[in-house]
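note to self — DONT lose this again. spent like an hour looking for the file last time. sequence + predicted structure for the chain T wanted, 594 res
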Amino acid sequence: MMVILGVGVPVLMYLTVMQSLGWRVPLITMNGAISFVASSSENVILYASPSTKAYFGTIGGNYDTLLVPWRDYFANRKRTYKEVREPGQLKEFKNGVLVLPSAIALSDEERAEILSFRQKGGSVLATWATGSRNGKGDWAGWEFLETLGVKMTGEIPRAAEVSYLIVNGESPVTYKHPAGQRLPLSKTSETLLRAKGEMVAGRFMNWARIVEPERRDEGAIVYTETAPGPSRTTFYAFAESVWESRPLMMYEVIDNTLQWLQREPAIVRAAWPNGKRAAQVIEMDTEDGFPNAEVFASMMRAIDYRATFYVLTSVGRRYPEVLTRLHRDFEVGYHADVHDGFKGQPPKLQEQRMQIMRTEMATVIPDVDTITGFRAPLEGYDAATEALLHKSGIRHHAADPSRTEARLPIVSKLPDVEPDDALIVLPRTQRDDINLASQNLNVEQTTKELIEDFDLAVDQGALGLLSVHSQNFHADSVLAKAMPGYLERLKQRKDQLWLASAGQVADWWREREHLRVSTVSSGKRLELDITVVGKKRLNGASVIVMLPQKGPPPTVQPVKTGLAKPTVVKLDEYRAAIMFGALEPGDYAYQVTF
């Protein structure tokens, strides 16, 4: 025993130290399989394929036009990289990240060297039709990309209405962008491709974030950690030319991609409380057909949800019993006095209208000071509207989809307004019943479209805001018959979803600003510092961790004695949520170990 301890303890200490410095150390997992704690590497190799260069020359093209965007990226980021022009040079690198920029033609030697690089632990970032032709330029199919974990299904027709890359929020390879961010794509001669992968981080869509049914499970950006072995892959299903005219937004995607491929963990402040993946608000514009609100309300009570009703006060005051019940069980907000938009109206007239709507609401609901939500008729408002809403006590309003390029709440920029008193703007992020009715859908089709909009919002980590209208919600309407199927889908994903009223989302978005997050990397650990500013307790604080190793979530321990240990929940194979529950104002320190 003394001999065993005398040898074993120093060996264990040595391995622990060397692992913290970057060694890949094999581990025996619970099921007996060998896995690796893979090391990160600063090596970034830009591979300028000679076969691809020759192929472009035969068709009158210039491969440099697809290499230059990468050189510009590295120059902009002041990032060290190595440009390699011969496959044999790849032998110099034991690991790192190999960038294959639209390397459409690859010889047998190039393929073999890339495979060898991956087997040594190197990761790959490939773009567009990489490897689809052989060294002579002849069509070879998609086999090379499939060896990287990418399943190709073809090309997107040039006539398709696809002009944006829409990214997921809190994804390991896109987390610098908020959920649902629109990244404009330039029209180029290189067609967009259709790809599937283990994980999707972005999709090709139109401005309204609608995608053709046959492409809904495909990705413009896919990523995977190929098993067995330590290599990771990210694939962009587009050529570099699509971002060349507006490069900076894409640079942030590349930043995150390289970090993930290099196995550098990252922690970001979560968009939603308590580790929830997304938020959902369902609201009714309650105007003509006001009594139909009772049909909608009964469905919301059945799922124990406090929905939001924006009331057109000139109509609502004629149904005091209905309005009183809505106010008792749900959140009630203003939908103005009459159904005219505010946009472009003189500020004095807008202010008069707001006074009228408050007076009319007070004839039924005396405590109007508690009503702090608003939605403009026809989604018509302007900067003057927002300033006057804040002046009149309104603290959130549901706006149009064009208000922000992302699918998260935003803070209205009003002068001399403290953050805790900010006006929060909630963009409508799902097609409403008017959009769907214009397509002449039946009940089953309407349910399907509602569910697909919802699923996309959850997958993106976004705010889903569904707006319906009272005049379209009578008991025999298509919308009313389609809603139960939609609500059933919400229940199926309830563990991932925060189902909240509009006011609750707005309140959280203000409270979230009190959370400050910073990290310092230390080998296989991150030092996580949390600060809660202000004077109030913060409930629901969470952060999202991008894992350096597929599978197991990290271990999180407080650094200071007496601090409660947070809860760690695995979100998927590449992310985990750390939930702190209730935090009093102050500073907190944790050690996150992978």
